[in-house]
Design goal:
- This protein is an alpha+beta fold.
- The chain contains six helices and four strands, in the order βαααβαββαα.
- It has one domain.
- It has a four-stranded mixed beta sheet with strand order 2-1-3-4.
- Strand 3 and strand 4 form a beta hairpin.
- The radius of gyration is 14 Å and the shape is globular.
- 19% of the residues are buried.
Length: 116
């Protein structure tokens, strides 16, 4: 079983620079709350990093373009999915639920409750 986190952002250096600028200039309109919760402006938040590194689950992090290319699926982003060995997905936390979260602690609690 693997947990896949899909950001509502595209991969690549230019997109990363644009995302950083957007977070600085207009954070209230930035469209990836998963990014906002797990990352500051330039780096991963320590509490999230600690959780991620200590997880018993295989965690995979993809940008939406990477997810769509690899799995040939389009979804609403951001999203957190659980997949089995056949790459069949079950949505653990959807876009609407992610957008209501305010902190790393809320995300971790929601994840732990969803996985049980």
């Amino acid at each position: 079983m693997k947990i896949i986190f899909v950001y509502n952002a595209n991969s690549g250096f230019i997109n990363t620079v644009l995302d950083i600028g957007h977070k600085i200039i207009s954070p209230e309109t930035y469209n990836c709350n998963l990014c906002n919760i797990t990352y500051g402006i330039l780096k991963e938040k320590e509490e999230w990093k600690t959780f991620r590194e200590s997880s018993d689950h295989e965690l995979k992090f993809l940008h939406k373009d990477e997810f769509e290319k690899k799995y040939k699926q389009v979804r609403e982003y951001p999203t957190i999915l659980m997949s089995n060995k056949n790459n069949e997905f079950h949505e653990l936390i959807n876009k609407e639920q992610l957008n209501k979260l305010k902190s790393v602690e809320e995300l971790i609690n929601k994840l732990q409750n969803s996985i049980k």
